[in-house]
Write a structure and sequence with these properties.
The protein is α+β, with helices and mostly antiparallel strands. It has 5 helices and 10 strands, in the order αβαββββααβαββββ. Helix 2 links the parallel strand 1 and strand 2. The longest helix is centred in the middle third of the chain and has 16 residues. About 4% of the residues have low confidence. InterPro entries: Pvc16_N. This is Pvc16 N-terminal domain-containing protein.
């Protein structure tokens, strides 16, 4: 799911014309050594915090059907996570960096969610809304100054971007539907001494299958001869 959120953000920023103008979009950690190797204008979206939104945790399981409407699996509810990115712009001059950062800000604040057309993988399969919050006040994540200190770099203008995305639940396959009935065999042997091959009871789609649920009435063999008991009168 995390790499799918990365791809959604990259596509969204790409639609703003960044890549067309020669600006790279990367997800690297902006350390001091990394910054020294940069030679082209770059927008960096560094993921530094991942936290579950426990208030949205569900229970139970949903059903998954195939194209024919057959139940094929059961899936546990998705878990929701907040992914927080530190978005920065890198260029040869501060003015160019601010211009890039302004372009990124205009692009991100124009939407409240990652558009469905930009989602891939499980995010597209689930069909759920992936929320997007830009430069909002987040009291439960590390401050930008602490992030820069941990990276070993100098404080730099940045945007805090939070994406709220679902992690697909576990899928458990179910057994295929029953299409044939049971095989009924008799313990008695046939007249030729061979074992009874048995008879398969088949299900059928009828309006009133009856209590047995099988196709038609069962065939009955000849009635067994009546056993004679002591005291029976002779004819």
């Amino acid at each position: 799911m995390i790499h799918e959120v990365d791809e959604g953000l990259r596509r969204l920023l790409g639609e703003c014309g960044l890549e067309a103008s020669g600006v790279e979009i990367v997800f690297d950690a902006p350390t001091r050594d990394w910054a020294a190797r940069r030679s082209a204008p770059t927008v960096c979206a560094f993921l530094y915090d991942i936290r579950e939104d426990a208030t949205r945790r569900g229970s139970g399981a949903g059903e998954v059907y195939d194209a024919d409407g057959q139940l094929v699996a059961r899936r546990t509810p998705p878990r929701w996570f907040d992914l927080t990115y530190l978005v920065t712009a890198w260029a040869s001059r501060p003015q160019d960096e601010h211009r890039l950062l302004s372009q990124v800000l205009s692009c991100l604040v124009a939407v409240d969610t990652l558009p469905a057309r930009l989602l891939t993988g499980t995010l597209a399969e689930l069909g759920l809304t992936v929320g997007l919050d830009v430069a909002g006040a987040a009291t439960d994540v590390p401050a930008a100054a602490d992030v820069w200190s941990a990276l070993g770099g100098e404080l730099k203008a940045s945007l805090g971007v939070r994406v709220r995305a679902p992690l697909a639940g576990a899928v458990t396959a179910v057994a295929p539907p029953v299409t044939e009935g049971l095989v009924v065999r008799s313990a008695a042997r046939r007249a030729d001494g061979q074992a009874d091959p048995g008879r398969r009871l088949r299900y059928t789609e009828v309006s009133d299958p009856g209590p047995q649920g099988f196709a038609g009435p069962r065939e009955r063999g000849p009635a067994p001869a009546r056993r004679r008991h002591r005291g029976d009168r002779q004819p």
